[in-house]
């Protein structure tokens, strides 16, 4: 076994999920994530945890959804086993890495939406655990990234096997500014793309220093972003980084906000998939997240949100669900069955201001060399 | 997809597990049972059931056990997630078919025994569901059977895709005799093997017409045996069909019974593995099952208990746990953490008598041509 698989597993179990003896862990292993599953299982055994392993197969999901669709059953909104499973779990480790990133492409969009809606309760129970999502580098993901398999493995391990403690310290500076701020404005004025000029409130919200550990309310490995839950957005935003929604490629999204809601939208390709997301429920038209990518170990876009949104020199906005960690106690808005991130490259002719102070210009932060306020 | 995979899945879901709309189903998919998993998931979707899919990987189990063993933790006797999972389930479908039947060969026997003991409660919760165990034909199982892959697939589907209703009718004759009987005696007098002459009580016990369906208290697909839970065994029994216990090949087992207990034993190979089984707990020295193989679709031994014990012209005895279905209400003996079947070829010079009446001679039953009482 590649020694980096073991390092990945130990980072996941120890740094990210903080597993301790006696913890009840649910792990989900995708079709081709077997090797990482073996390394994680070994680490869990060594830590004295219990483990229940799910098979996270997109091909099985497709078959189930198609079968249900054919018989027109609809979906149980309170599936007893899944609820009991996650309610009893201390931690949930999702090991992605299937054989085909478009394995569910021929499932009716309405079916997928109905399934996602029906599983709101299960998702909530899962998110009440110390959950962490990661991926094992597979040939399918390499293909999606447009990379050779060996090259892609290097890419993944460069992003995952980092000095997380040092990055957490650096990112804490951005968290402090966002926590103290009331209003955030993002402006880009590139020649080759429509302008962005969007203003949002962040008053009363708490930013997450997403350092790839539940100890930081951070649930992705790799991570490396600071994010918060904005509201009352006004203005226009353009997202030039391509993404995949429900197996559909979506490019060059433009969103127009008024009083916190998306009132107009367009996409160069995949506009129908975007529309379907925005129509899921009322919360899907409001912002759930503003994130600032700060992981400079990620050096290119690979059509995987887990990596793309963490890349340095990017910011992203998500429509849909906000993370509880960003909200005041007891506050549940923005609630939604979806959470879809959209990314902008801010490496050139951009500025991010908090209450009028420029904190990032052309991708550089105020504490970095090359930043000019 | 081979059309027989779909037939296998539908037999499992409809005939075996009797899945209905709204049922909460837990399915476990082994490493290489993916294709059967897809077909079963589709059938479950069509029936309107909920499904939670576990990854039944021996390689992950090995890694977990080795990790735990290295750190010397021991095992949690009440793992919360697994218990909650099976307590909430209506049915459990186990789809075997890994990549290496000896994948756990280097796990310490004590570790495996401790793990099996600790999981008694989980196993009981699982067996309280409508559980069914089957296998997808894999290269690893073909290899264990000493067969080509294509040949092995034919073998499996010949055993699985049968007229179960007709076989159930035939087997019901044997169940009636065993239910009415008090004492059963098995005698073999072959020139090439030690004699068997063992007598057991079956008074008050209920035989199971194991027709591969939970509607018959039968939990294997394929099945095709009639079994009961004998007690007070006396005599000697010889088992000439090789088997694998804890990844160890065990051949030519001889057991000596007195007052229901194994008081002496021997095996030509694998005696240590046999000893380990018998030492698990007091119940492991007593019989849990007498079974009479009646599936003539199975035409050879393949070193898989799921098939071997169902083959026509064989009988088997199991040490360890008895199935509740055979016991009077409230009776829990014979209780044990193990259940290990041992098989004899009774095609020649054998007789099975119930209260003195010969019901099977040289493999033929009293209702068959070629039987001479």
Automatic annotation (TrEMBL), chains A, B:
Cofactor(s) in the UniProt record: Zn(2+); Mg(2+); Co(2+)
Gene Ontology biological-process annotations: proteolysis
Matches recorded under InterPro entries: M29_Exopeptidase (IPR052170), M29_N-terminal (IPR035097), Peptidase_M29 (IPR000787)
GO molecular function: aminopeptidase activity; metal ion binding; metallopeptidase activity
Keyword terms, alphabetized: Aminopeptidase, Hydrolase, Metal-binding, Metalloprotease, Protease
Top-level taxonomic group: Archaea
Protein family: Belongs to the peptidase M29 family.
Protein name: Aminopeptidase
Organism per entry: Halorubrum laminariae
């Amino acid at each position: 076994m590649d020694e980096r698989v073991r390092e990945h597993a130990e980072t996941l179990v120890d740094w990210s999920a903080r597993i301790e003896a006696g913890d009840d862990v649910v792990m989900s292993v995708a079709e081709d994530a077997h090797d990482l599953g073996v390394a994680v299982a070994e680490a869990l055994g060594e830590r004295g945890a219990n483990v229940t392993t799910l098979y996270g197969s997109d091909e099985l999901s497709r078959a189930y959804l198609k079968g249900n669709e054919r018989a027109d059953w609809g979906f149980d909104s309170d599936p007893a086993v899944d609820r009991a499973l996650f309610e009893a779990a201390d931690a949930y480790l999702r090991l992605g890495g299937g054989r085909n990133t478009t394995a569910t492409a021929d499932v009716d969009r309405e079916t997928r939406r109905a399934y996602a809606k029906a599983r709101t309760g299960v998702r909530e129970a899962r998110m009440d655990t110390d959950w962490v999502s990661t991926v094992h580098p597979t040939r399918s993901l390499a293909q999606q990234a447009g990379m050779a398999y060996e090259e892609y493995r290097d890419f993944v391990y460069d992003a995952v096997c980092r000095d997380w403690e040092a990055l957490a310290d650096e990112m804490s500076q951005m968290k402090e500014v966002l926590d103290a701020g009331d209003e955030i404005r993002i402006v880009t004025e590139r020649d080759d793309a429509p302008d962005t000029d969007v203003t949002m409130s962040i008053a009363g919200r708490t930013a997450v220093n997403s350092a790839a550990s539940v100890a930081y309310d951070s649930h992705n490995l790799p991570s490396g972003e600071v994010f918060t839950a904005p509201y009352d957005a006004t203005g226009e935003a353009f997202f030039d980084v391509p993404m995949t929604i429900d197996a559909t490629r979506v490019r060059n999204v433009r969103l127009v906000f008024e009083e916190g809601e998306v009132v107009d939208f367009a996409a160069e390709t995949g506009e129908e998939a975007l529309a379907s997301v925005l129509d899921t429920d009322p919360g899907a038209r409001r912002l759930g997240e503003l994130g600032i990518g700060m992981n400079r170990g990620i050096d290119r876009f690979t059509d995987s949100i887990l990596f793309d949104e963490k890349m340095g020199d990017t910011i992203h906005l998500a429509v849909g669900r906000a993370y509880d960690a960003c909200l005041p106690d007891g506050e549940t808005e923005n609630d939604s069955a979806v959470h879809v991130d959209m990314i902008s490259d801010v490496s050139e002719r951009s500025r991010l201001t908090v209450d009028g102070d420029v904190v990032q210009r052309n991708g550089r932060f105020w504490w970095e060399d090359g930043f000019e306020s």
